[in-house]
UniProtKB/TrEMBL annotation:
Superkingdom of origin organism: Bacteria
Positions of the Cytochrome c domain: 187-278
Transmembrane segment boundaries: none
Keywords assigned: Heme, Iron, Metal-binding
Entry-linked InterPro entries: Cyt_c-like_dom (IPR009056), Cyt_c-like_dom_sf (IPR036909), Cytochrome_c-type_DH (IPR051459)
Protein name, entry field: C-type cytochrome
Amino acid sequence: MKISVNRIVWTSFLTGIAAIIIYSCQTNAKSESNPVDAKPPATVLLAVDSAAIPGDKFGEAVKYGQELMYRTAYYIGPEGINGRYLGNRMNCTNCHQNGGTKPFSFNLMLSHEQYPQYRAREGKVLTMAERVNNCINRPHNGKSLPLDSKEMVAFLAYFRWINSFVPKDKPYKGGKNLEVELPDVAASPERGAQLYVQHCERCHGKDGEGIMTADKNGYVYPPLWGPSGYQPGSSMHRIIKQAQWLKANMPFDKATWDKPFLTDGEALDIAAFVNDDSRHPRPNPKMFDYPHIAEKALDYDKGPFADTFSVSAHKYGPYKPMIDYWKSKGQKPAY
Ligand code: HEC
Ligand code: HEC
């Protein structure tokens, strides 16, 4: 089978190689340091080495899992060759860049060892497989993979394999999201609209529709809203969460996590514009999220709420008064 490797995949692999070099430099530096030195361990930059995928049956599953991350729609999209599960043609790697290994891009390298885990959105303990299906259901607007399907097993094998690159004794860079400072004013879709034209439109299009690959099995530039975009129940639809991701990752050709392009305020305003569904409708099936309302993420915009702040405040901020409110009740707000 001939696999056409598109530009994005290439960029991803090249980034991966660069990161391996950085990681190995850091490992060398560490081994030369004084062992009695009591300084806290430096955070390491991780990368996976695809050449190290084992040549056995497990390795086969890992390889298919990696393929599924990069070419999700080709395999399991609306016209997938191995099954029709996704409702849209985005690929996992569009958000979990470099197949979930890029720092600060909803990195998935730690995930495998952190499940089963309690999830507030569902109000119960989820397995990793159920969490994978969450992303298939929401951003991808699709139907769940059977838990024993070849595809689910491949995703899990891949996540276990990327997890094996995480050192047990040191923190690593970019497992969590890049923080944005929350201003005293609400995020503004109006300011965001202007910034969108300046910084995003040239790739994602005037109507956020993106540009498909020639074979129509994915996107060169994925859609941001409209019938092919992610759903409101997705975490990408939450403004703080999206702003953290934009700061580290967009514009694609200009931002890096260590040299963001957008300011924190700009990232919040643009996220407010992209997620303003009065301008930008998107698929919106009924979801029953957060059965325990006091556990709602701060920037989740659907009521009822356990506090007295408005829908608009939850969606656009200002978030600080809400954070203070929850702190005064001795609770840590989630966002
Ligand atoms: C539109 C963007 C988007 C797409 C596409 C997407 N995800 Fe996600 N995914 C997210 C966000 C946002 C989170 C939550 C990250 C956070 O809370 O910091 C997430 C979380 C996850 C998690 C849980 C991570 C953890 O450690 O808790 C897994 C696993 C996951 N995604 C797998 C997938 C898979 C597999 C696909 C493809 C079938 C996929 N995602 C496609 C946005 C996306
Ligand atoms: C140079 C082209 C380019 C520009 C400019 C750009 N992006 Fe992207 N964007 C991409 C590509 C390519 C991806 C997919 C990344 C991947 O698959 O690794 C992406 C992915 C995304 C995603 C996640 C996937 C989805 O469709 O939901 C969001 C959200 C996003 N971009 C928002 C923005 C915003 C907002 C701006 C402006 C600040 C912007 N981008 C500017 C190329 C671009």
